[in-house]
Design the sequence.
């Protein structure tokens, strides 16, 4: 579906196909038990669902309260028109959509405080609050249980030449036009940088935040976009049937939207339309069958349960998978999830030419003379456990510093404080002299601190290239920028950054594979590549060599050494050979306190370190020289 | 400003409603905490409990018998659901679990609608629940007072199971750390099955006791599901004390607000939830660090 560069004629191919399908559907429907009315209703649900699919299908936020915005948009438009506050239907629709968006900002701000199942529960509850507001306190304006009858139809043109868009094919055309524009916009959003971040959030929200994207703001933005789609669809519903029903606000409306989207295919944009067609068509036609007519919703519920249990992709998702298998001949393992592990090939790191420089570097720092990173009296208590106590250390610009210590010494907690993942109980973190304590992980990354994790935190549903692009976009867009339209793949600097990082970590040949198909050492290098692509001044590497084969270890060690030539590194690592080989300075932690720090030679000769950490081992295995 | 007698009567109404919400939310929250599954069919199961009583009372006058038979039926439903559907979903994303229980809810509601019709039906009060009782300072419908007592006993029974039995220990441990419980080699499958059935029973039991207070209809579970969610959000994830406290708070908010202006009774409940989300997103008794 991704439009190719320079292939302008194909850019609107999906829209063209959709128009053809809609025209065909309009003419076929009356012969198979449908009608113009049914056609229009399906399109309104489809439009409603476009926003929901962006929210659930692409961002992973399952809302059970979309009726709140459908109803709000519908009632505000209908109220403005039936009270003659506004004469123009178009303007009323715009105001209704806007009102839904405002309601979306408020509800989103509250509901997005929680994730996962809690988000589903809270959105459902806010759907209910909207229903009760419409039904009781606002009944004087909304008509309560009676709804608002007498919504006028829109007119096109001015004066004597104008004509009303009456029900039937004219109204259907209008609704179809709105749907098509909505679809085209949604498709742009999906392929935009904004959309790329949404997919990353769905895959791994924590890592997305750690790469410098303000996840909360992206979520709120897509929540509001979904509310706008719902508001417009609700407004059209009132205009379409000249009546705004209170059911628009009901729990059943939110539930039906969810069910239709799942039946049609989540994350496909056309899914909600297809699901709506199935649902409304069966609703209308099953009811006509004597005996089972009363079971129409039971049967739809059964289809729904079977679909989620057996075919998770829904109609459109299954069709797309089938298309990819047959037409493009792309093995399903690439699109799906099953890892088909490639045998570990020998590391293909570039031999010796200088590492490619990154076009997207961290912003210039204010006081270049100050140490790159400095911890001042950092402490962290977890309940009664004092994980880190009063640790101060200084990382000079352009050096490689290692933090070593036995398990449980507090290295990981120290790293988390440096990277903003954990707020210190006391003390400060300074980055080029600027205090960044409590800035949070996104802020730390935006400031220019990158971290690669001890346990890989990759985006398993994105290709290697897309993984790296998510990180590069954070540097290009900043913490949050609603770049909704251009293609995510068309920002030259970002693409150059991606290529440079792929070359640096030696994964050019793997760029279009899913991480699940990579060998372990390749995954580790991708993990480093992610933090590198965000363009950091200081790179924190948490046990970069852990679990690697000897060959991979040598290659990765070489990669780290070369990264150290051009940026500042802090490494936590248990491999002492590597530490003494790579680091210019070493800090030793034990039981949460800083035991010693200095050059590798200092550390080797420090009796306290020998006692507490290296122990007898040192006598048998002289390291470093 | 409403008079004191009305406020007192509403406070008792709030206690009756609140205890039912507390029971329902307890069922929801122990399933959520132990199995990690949010049961969107909870409202439909509440409705199913009410219909179970409705059916049995068509053949006998004894509400007690109806509740016992209905309770057995609900346990059976819970065990079958867990065994046939829910079990397939433990390893799937939370969204899928929500979707499938939501779908099961549709099946229950529509099945009941097909069999019993969509109209609401009266469930008679038991003979021992008819009439009014004088509390000295006011008179009050007898059955509502009994509801408070019955639900208090049910909640106490749940407390005993959770805090005084082996399975309760596993459930509470599971709420703290599901993975750890798995590693301890406890027969998690059987425990999960029982816990799920217990949650279903709690919803069904609330519906059974509630049925004589209101008429039953297939859609009665939807609003109750939403209110139970609010209670869980207020009380905190997986917290039994939170569910009980949250239920009572929710019941009182609804009832007392309606003494002033019935139009705002439910709006107020959701407003309080919104406020709590701002000041303390994890709820009153929710463990820290679990979102």
Sequence:
């Amino acid at each position: 579906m991704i439009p190719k560069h320079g292939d302008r004629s194909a850019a609107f191919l999906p829209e063209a196909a959709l128009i053809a399908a809609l025209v065909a559907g309009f003419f076929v429907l009356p012969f198979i038990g449908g009608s113009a009315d049914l056609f229009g209703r399906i399109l309104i649900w489809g439009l409603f669902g476009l926003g929901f699919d962006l929210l659930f299908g692409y961002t992973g936020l399952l809302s059970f309260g979309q009726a709140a915005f459908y109803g709000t948009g519908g009632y505000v438009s209908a109220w403005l028109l039936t009270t003659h506050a506004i004469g123009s239907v178009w303007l009323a629709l715009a105001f209704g959509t806007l009102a839904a968006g405002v309601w979306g900002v408020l509800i989103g701000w509250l509901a997005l405080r929680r994730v996962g199942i809690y988000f589903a529960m809270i959105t459902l509850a806010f759907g209910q609050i909207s229903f009760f507001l419409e039904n009781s306190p606002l009944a004087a304006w909304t008509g309560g249980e009676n709804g608002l009858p007498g919504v006028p139809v829109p007119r096109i043109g001015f004066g004597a030449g104008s004509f009303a868009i009456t029900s039937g094919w004219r109204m259907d055309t209008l609704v179809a036009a709105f749907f098509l524009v909505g679809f085209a916009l949604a498709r742009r959003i999906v392929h935009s940088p904004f959309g790329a971040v949404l997919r990353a959030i769905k895959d791994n929200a924590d890592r997305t935040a750690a790469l410098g994207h303000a996840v909360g703001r992206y979520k709120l933005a897509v929540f509001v976009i979904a509310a706008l789609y719902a508001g417009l669809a609700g407004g059209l519903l009132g205009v379409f049937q000249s009546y705004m029903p209170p059911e628009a606000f009901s729990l059943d409306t939110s539930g039906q939207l969810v069910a239709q989207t799942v039946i049609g295919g989540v994350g496909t944009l056309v899914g909600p339309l297809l699901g709506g067609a199935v649902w409304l068509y069966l609703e209308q036609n099953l009811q006509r069958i004597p005996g089972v007519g009363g079971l129409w919703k039971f049967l739809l519920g059964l289809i729904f349960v079977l679909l989620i249990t057996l075919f998770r992709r829904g109609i459109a998702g299954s069709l797309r998978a089938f298309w990819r298998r047959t037409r493009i001949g792309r093995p399903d393992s690439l699109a799906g999830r099953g890892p088909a592990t490639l045998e570990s090939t020998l590391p293909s790191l570039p031999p010796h030419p200088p590492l490619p420089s990154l076009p997207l570097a961290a912003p210039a720092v204010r006081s270049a003379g100050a140490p790159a990173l400095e911890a001042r009296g950092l402490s962290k208590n977890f309940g009664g456990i004092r994980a880190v106590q009063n640790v101060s250390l200084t990382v000079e610009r352009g050096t490689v510093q290692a933090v070593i210590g036995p398990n449980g010494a507090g290295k990981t907690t120290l790293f988390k404080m440096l990277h903003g993942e954990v707020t210190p109980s006391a003390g400060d973190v300074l980055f080029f002299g600027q205090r960044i304590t409590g800035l949070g992980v996104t802020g730390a990354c935006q400031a220019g601190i990158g971290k690669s994790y001890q346990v890989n935190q990759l985006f398993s549903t994105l290709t290697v290239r897309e993984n790296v692009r998510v990180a590069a976009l954070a540097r290009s867009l900043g913490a949050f920028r609603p770049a909704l339209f251009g293609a995510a793949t068309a920002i030259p600097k970002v693409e150059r950054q991606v290529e440079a990082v792929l070359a640096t970590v030696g994964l050019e040949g793997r760029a279009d594979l899913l991480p699940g198909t990579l060998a372990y050492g390749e995954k580790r290098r991708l993990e480093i590549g992610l933090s590198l692509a965000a363009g950091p001044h200081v790179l924190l590497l948490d046990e970069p060599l852990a679990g690697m084969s000897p060959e991979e270890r040598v290659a990765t060690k070489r990669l780290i050494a070369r990264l150290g030539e051009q940026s500042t590194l802090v490494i936590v690592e248990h491999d002492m050979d590597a530490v003494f080989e790579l680091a210019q300075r070493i800090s030793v932690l034990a039981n949460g306190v800083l035991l010693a720090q200095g050059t590798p030679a200092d550390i080797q000769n420090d009796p306290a370190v020998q006692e507490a950490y290296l122990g007898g081992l040192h006598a048998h295995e002289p390291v470093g020289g | 400003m409403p008079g004191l007698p009305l406020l007192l009567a509403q406070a008792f109404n709030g206690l009756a409603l609140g205890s039912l919400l507390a029971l329902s939310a307890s069922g929801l929250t122990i399933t959520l905490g132990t199995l990690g599954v949010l049961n969107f069919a909870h409202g439909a199961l509440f409705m199913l409990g009410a219909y179970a009583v409705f059916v049995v009372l068509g053949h006998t006058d004894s509400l007690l018998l109806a509740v016992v038979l209905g309770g057995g039926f609900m346990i059976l439903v819970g065990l079958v659901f867990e065994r046939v559907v829910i079990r397939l979903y433990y390893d799937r994303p939370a969204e899928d679990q929500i979707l499938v229980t939501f779908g099961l809810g549709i099946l229950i509601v529509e099945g009941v609608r097909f069999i019993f019709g969509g109209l609401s039906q009266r469930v008679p009060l038991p003979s021992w629940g008819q009439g009014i009782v004088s509390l000295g300072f006011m008179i009050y419908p007898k059955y509502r007072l009994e509801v408070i007592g019955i639900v208090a006993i049910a909640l106490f029974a749940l407390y005993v199971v959770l805090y005084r039995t082996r399975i309760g220990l596993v459930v509470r441990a599971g709420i703290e750390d599901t993975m750890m419980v798995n590693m301890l080699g406890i027969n998690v499958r059987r425990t999960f099955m029982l816990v799920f059935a217990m949650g279903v029973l709690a919803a069904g039991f609330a519906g059974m006791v509630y049925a004589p207070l209101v008429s039953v209809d297939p859609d009665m579970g939807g609003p109750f599901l939403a209110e139970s969610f609010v209670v869980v959000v207020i009380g905190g994830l997986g917290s039994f004390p939170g569910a009980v406290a949250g239920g009572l708070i929710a019941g009182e908010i609804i009832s007392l607000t309606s003494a002033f202006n019935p139009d705002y009774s439910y709006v107020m409940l959701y407003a309080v939830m919104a406020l709590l989300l701002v000041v303390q997103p994890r709820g009153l008794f929710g463990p820290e660090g679990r979102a």
Q: What stands out?
A: Chain A has two domains: 41-328, 373-448+536-620. The longest strand of chain A covers residues 385-395. Chain A touches chain B through 44 residues (CB under 8 Å).
